Batch of 4 targets.
Target 1
Amino acid sequence: MQWVIPVATAAWAIWTWAHNHERERQHERTRMAALYVSPFLSACEELQSRIFKILELGGLDALRKRYPDGAYAEETFYLIVRFFGWSAAVNRYGPYTQDAEVIRLITGCRRAFSTSSLNRPVGPFNFFIPEQKALGKVVMHSLEGEFGRELDTISFYDFQELIATPPLSDSESVKQTLDAMRNAKNINDIMGRERLADAQVYLVDLLTYLEALEGYSLFAGDRRKCASSNEERVVTGLRADIAEEELVAIEA
């Protein structure tokens, strides 16, 4: 029976190690969720909700009443840029850096904004990949938090000051996007709305996928997709435009 004590000691050591390892893993998973997943989901939800309300629920009129000075254009642009910033952070640091579905959906959403073709000319809501990266960096900053240095986005008011001064105030894509929002009398007047609709479809699919993995949802009920977006057209059209987009991005 002398072997019982060593065996029990070894078993206890293994259990303790496994328990501590699992506790550390859960702690790290909680940290990653707090730093990257939760703010990224929030950025996706707020952008898809804004797009859906504008394109499908007549939200442009409500925004005009709330922001008679036209600031709703800057706010909508801020939501787009926020997505650029957090998607880059999640792709680089988050727990889904090697998840093929997350990569596919984020890439699809970014390409909805970046592609151009004869049927979808350069214009409002059109930001090539290098500009998306630059805009994403502009809106992000770091601060000291519970988990050390943490990423966060600057406030909307700080963002308003930034886009009112060079180099953002000189950006043609920024000016076209803001003008498209301010000058539109209704949704049919919003140039580039197809890009918004396509992006919203990918955002809904991305939220559905990630919330299933995370075990919680930011939205009570089923999200709806923009009816003005044809998913089959999006997939085939984006594939056809990839070569042109990459060439323009390289030249930019």
Target 2
Amino acid sequence: MPGRRRRVGLEHGTLLAGSAALLGLLVLGMGAPRNWWTRTLELRFRTDSAAGLQPGMAVKISGYPVGQVDRIQLLNDAQVQVSLTIAASREGLIGRRSRATLAQEGLLGKAYIAISPDLQDYGRRQALKPGDTLPYNASPDLGTLIREVASSRLPLQNLIGRSVNLIDQRLPRSLNQLDRTLGSGERLAGALQSEARAGSDLLQTRISRVSDNIEQSLSSLDTTLRDVRALVRSSDGLLRDIQRSWLLQLLEPAAPTAPQAGQGPAGAAPASESQPPIGR
């Protein structure tokens, strides 16, 4: 009997120990996603409406999860206070310039609280204290956006209608003016081209005439030079003929000669000698 009681007591102890271990594991499993075993920082923000907010929704910085919404309370002044639980390891990214905003993953994704990081004086500024309040920027809901779009649709439609009418009135006139301008430009280009061609032909003709005149002048000058050369040669021959002429020999004074033996008085020639011929 005593042995049997000891075995029953041992079984009961083992069962209690297993139950306690299982309960501990269950508590650990429940506390891990809720950050029960990690040091956290509690921050708050206030808003006029709790629409879209609920406990347990994620809190992210730059799209990375850093905490969750802990609780939502309605205050006496009809304001809604939202408490956030942030991992203490990420509290350095949150400063006095940080703001909380209701965001959404894509168009139909889950909503979450986005906190803008504050990196000014990072590592040197004073850390936030538990219970500090962050500014909150409420995002407009879908109904508000639809009403704003509907209210702006009519002015936008009127503006588009006026723009279309203005284009219909002004565009054909502008196209006609453009066509006329292009036609005038083409005619002007043709006239300039014709004038340039005529001017080039006239210039070429004048250059040809000047070249012909220069060639004729050079030919006349060559002929004149040949005539001058012939005249010079004729003048040289005439001068040589004049020098050999008997008239110049008569005009030149006769050189005195000494009397010879058997001659008469000085200057008298013997009678027997004949006179030199007077002409050639």
Target 3
Amino acid sequence: MGLAFVFMWSSAFTSARMIVADAPPLAALSLRFLVAGVIGVTIARTMGQSWSLTRAQWRSVAVFGFCQNALYLGLNFVAMRKIEAGLASIVASSMPLLVALLGWLFRGQRVRPLGIAGLVAGFAGVALIMGSRLSGAGVDPMSLALCAIGATALAVATLTVGGTGATGNVLMIVGLQMFVGSAVLGIASALTEVIAVHWTLRLVLAFLYTTFIPGLLATWIWFKLVARIGPVRAATFHFLNPFFGVTIGALLLGETLKLTDAVGVAIVMAGILAVQLSRGEPAATRPTP
């Protein structure tokens, strides 16, 4: 589940780069969430899922929709007009450290020594890849800052997922949080963007792929994964974003693929292994079933 999620999630950086080349980023993302939300809720209702959620679930839907969809993805879409998809995925992969830090500060969650070593190794691998990338010319600092803010928002959303519970309403919850992102980004687009679209086949295909695969399927898998192993351990899979993000960007967009990328990914994978081999979180910190 973790590998499937991170592959689909990382591929969204490349498809997003294709979209923002021909359409305003916030408007395109708002439309994507609207379409995905309608489809997700419709399928959920067909499956017998209810939108009568608990108060904690509604709060999670609102926070997750705002933090992940509006802030994290919105800021990344804007940033990818000026930076490569691979670099954006590298910044996003620092999120597990933020999840562990926020979990420790605000939820009293503990990370065992082997897990801490894995997190440090993962960050070191990310730092190696990023350092190599930043040494080149043409990297826009403001766009990097937007990606960093987005990663922090995603960390908050990740910790919030545990509050939704594994109640069988997962697809309904996914669809509803899409509507939250669509509404927020629609307002932001109306206030800041001029709608001008250059219609191409690549734009249409990238939009459809991003809507159905990273948008609906990957988000559904993410909810299931967090419910199964907890937010801190699940978040470590984001350390694989540099590998998949850089590789997919290189294959489809011709972005640079360096030897340091491969070395960094090897370190990252060692970090993930260490975290997954460490004991799970204490029962008190696991998501409530």
Target 4
Amino acid sequence: MIFIAELGLNHNGNLELCSELIRQAKWAGADIAKFQLGWKAKEGELNHINKESLDKILKICDYYDIEFMASIFNEESFELSKSINQSQYKIASRTVIDNPELVRSILKLNKPTILSLGMWEKPELPFQDFKNIKYLWCKSMYPTMPWDLKSLPKDFEEKNIAGYSDHSIGIETALLAISRGATIIEKHFTLDKSDVTIRDHSLSADPQEFRTLTTLGRNFNKNRLLGI
């Protein structure tokens, strides 16, 4: 099981808060702390991360022994990510639709790449000519309500989908996905769900919720592999 704490913009543009998010994500059982490079990232915007800021984030991740990963939204952020030799990549649903050439450029690096399907509506999976992709099922709705999740795969392995990127409130759907074979879970992570700086805080898991998710989720997966 791999658990990704999507920190995204939940640092509110504050590197000190970012450091605490990373620390708490590690405590909560996350394997990966994930950021977004190139989204709302112009100078003066909430998610402006330059090389100096990125180097600091990498040092914090290294100190707390949690893997850094980022979604890449444009060519400039792709170049920034290559400067740090990012070990694996995440591709957001929006990028799959808006910039398929960028997706191909990332995939051509032949590094492990996790791709979200939240805006993908075709029956066949995208970019199947590449073998370094793991797909995540999701709905690009913020938050995703229970009645919008009726197409959640009944068997992730059968669909050739590795995991689930969760935008719902709570952790129940993520646990349901694990029981159905999802082995990668991405969940937004916050220290304060009542923070209204951006919408993502309300649909995120706080540290205790995320810790419950990772603990139960790993046990769910073990039992599923035993055939229970």
